[in-house]
Specification:
- By secondary structure, the chain is α/β, with parallel strands linked by helices.
- The protein has a single domain, classed as Alpha/Beta hydrolase fold, catalytic domain (Rossmann fold, 3-Layer(aba) Sandwich).
- Helix content is 32%, strand content 16%.
- It is built from six helices and seven strands; from the N terminus they run ββαβαβαββααβα.
- A seven-stranded mixed beta sheet has the order 1-3-2-4-5-6-7, with helices on both faces.
- Helix 2 packs across helix 3.
- The radius of gyration is 16 Å and the shape is globular.
- The two termini are 23 Å apart.
- The relative contact order is 0.16.
Length: 229
């Protein structure tokens, strides 16, 4: 896990673990990882790029649910365990994933990730469930289940993406709405799959991180998260 921490005195208390996409066979770690992490850190949010185990890599012995999702939960626990050192509010640690990484984000959010208070490992004493989830054109949208206690969601995808995403994420938004869980959805008309964060991206979709920043600011205001110095 690679941390990108805000400059001293600029931390807003929010942390996000970022899982890049890549179809579970590789990691598109720059435009779906490091680029966004740097952008967030410059604006006060601590970001952590996660290199999770790949269940579809050649000759892989790993599973999606047992290993990759476990890596996301462990990363969330690690951030919470070092929250004081990294100037993070342990009540505001989120999971963000692109494409295949988005599956890790929503799967971690769907599980309780219960803390093990008697554990000898300080990290395992923390909850592995994110406080919020940011789903950037994730696959397997039909697997997303929403309950009343499901973490709030920020969702981004392109109109030109495949059916389970371009159409599926609209259905997912309605699941959040029906469950009474706040969610925000952005579908960009001129975008497809895999746009991530690149300097070369043109048009409205290039500014989706700014919409995330606005959403986070609203969340900070609602949950009384204070800037961490």
């Amino acid at each position: 896990m690679t941390p990108y921490l805000p400059a001293a005195g600029n931390a807003n208390g929010v942390a996000i673990v970022i899982a890049p996409g890549g179809g579970h066979s590789k990691l598109c770690i720059d435009h779906e990882g490091h680029n966004l992490a740097r952008w967030l850190a410059e604006r006060g949010t601590a970001a952590f790029v996660l290199k999770y185990r790949l269940s579809r890599e050649k000759d892989s012995t790993y599973s999606l649910e047992g290993h990759a999702v476990g890596d996301m939960q462990r990363a969330i626990r690690l951030v919470r365990s070092r929250s004081k050192e990294w100037h993070v509010d342990p009540r505001c640690v989120g999971a963000l994933g692109f494409s295949a990484g988005g599956e890790l984000a929503f799967m971690a959010a769907m599980q309780q990730g219960t803390a093990n208070s008697p554990a000898h490992d300080e990290i395992d004493r923390q909850s592995g469930r994110p406080d919020f989830q940011c789903l950037i054109y994730p696959g397997k949208s039909s697997r997303i289940a929403v309950q009343k206690d499901t973490p709030q969601a920020f969702i981004v995808c392109g109109y030109g993406d495949r059916q389970d995403i371009a159409h599926g994420m609209a259905e997912v938004y309605l699941k959040f709405k029906d469950a009474g869980v706040p969610a925000e959805l952005h579908i960009y008309a001129a975008a497809g799959h895999g746009f991530g964060v690149r300097d070369s991206t043109q048009g409205a979709v290039a500014h989706w991180p700014a919409r995330l920043e606005e959403w986070l600011a609203d969340k900070i205001a609602r949950t009384a998260v204070m800037p961490y110095q």
